[in-house]
Amino acid sequence: MAGHFEATPGGGAAVALxxxxxxxxxxxxVQLLELxxxxxxxxxxxxxxxxxxxxxxxxxxxxxxxARLFPEAYGKPEGYGDGDKELREASAExxxxxxxxxxxxxxxxxxxxxxxxxxxxxxxxxxxxxTLTAGECRNWLGSLNDLRLTIGTRLEVSDEDEGQDGSxxxxxxxDPRKPMVMAYLWLGALQETLVETxxx
Length: 200
Description:
By secondary structure, the protein is mainly alpha-helical.
């Protein structure tokens, strides 16, 4: 079980983590929450139903990592030509009515990661076993994917880099990107084993 998820009865999964792994996962999830930003909670006296139908932004985020987490529905903004006005408008309209919900879901996924790690309590020398329910597994899958997308964007990872013969596996220890590359690859392995536990 060390280092990879295994299925548990009831559709959940479990993984053994040491203190350092727990600290890294928690730190990355908190950073993801900071990147996504706070939710728009209804103010006192404000109708929660009205807040539910509040419009979101119509323009893509300027931060490349956020733009990767909240991509354009119909192509990339830099790919729009003068004749693509309708496509650009359709993408803006789609973003306006979906991004707030998508942000809320990504926040909830990351919060579940933090809460389940915090629930482990003090971790001994042998580490701890994190056991997730089926619902928490889905939250973890979403958050692991978001973390990999964010780190991959920051590292400017391409499909070629990710192959077994890719450059990510050949970085020298002196490369300042090495720690984040190792985290990226580790998160990918966690994500893969979690997916496998959920397959029938």
